[in-house]
Amino acid sequence: MIVVATSDFEVYHGVVNELRDRGTEFTTVEPDATLPERTAVVVTDADHADDFASATTIVADPDAPRRAVDQALAAVRGDGGRTVIGVDPGHKPGIAVLAGEMIVAAFQVPLTDAVEAIQREADEAANPVVRIGDGSRLEGATLVNDLEDVTVELVDETGTTPYLGTGSRGMGDVLAAVNIARLEGEVVDSRDIEPTAGELQVIKDRSRERSEKNRAIDEVLARRVAAGELTIDEALSAHRNDGSTDEDDGATRQRRNDDPE
Spans of biased composition, class Basic and acidic residues (predicted)? Predict the structure, then answer.
């Protein structure tokens, strides 16, 4: 059992609320009280860090109660409590955070916000690992290359997307992320991907859909989008500022040729 023993109000408030939010069994005692017999982990403040020799002690930072709770849960569950962040890559990646077999958080965010979300979860965990599916090659490579100071594994995501029944629309990417988190992968530091002609065309088509004037970016900008250097909106802005018209003129000529006289 987890015991919270602190005289620091901020530590107490943050840790207790985090434990309650997770539905975790715990109790609280005064720092100088006798610990309950079933005590497995004590969460306390820096002033009482050396007062509990009979149990595993986690010192909580009042500004990061979640990190302390993650460490406490990992200690209670043993090695199976390690924080694993599973990611189903795509334009809106699904992200699932597991402590052992328990899902403690889940998100689905735009690709441009995904690295920040993953990094935040990793920074708040003890010894985390990020497992990224190997599908959606370009988006996955962007995530692998932009994450810092965390172990990243590339996972074969074959079969990780579940069947979705009625009423579960929109859950597929997050559920796939859960399955990806539960699969071991190959540790990678970076991932270099040469975009195919088809992938570049998809990016160009998306830029045309986002453009107010039905204009697509050129291949140079599409390659920068594929490499994660630019978002499509940034590429469109650069395209307008550059005054590039080759593809626009080509599309215009095609439309003119298709129009009956």
Answer: 250-261
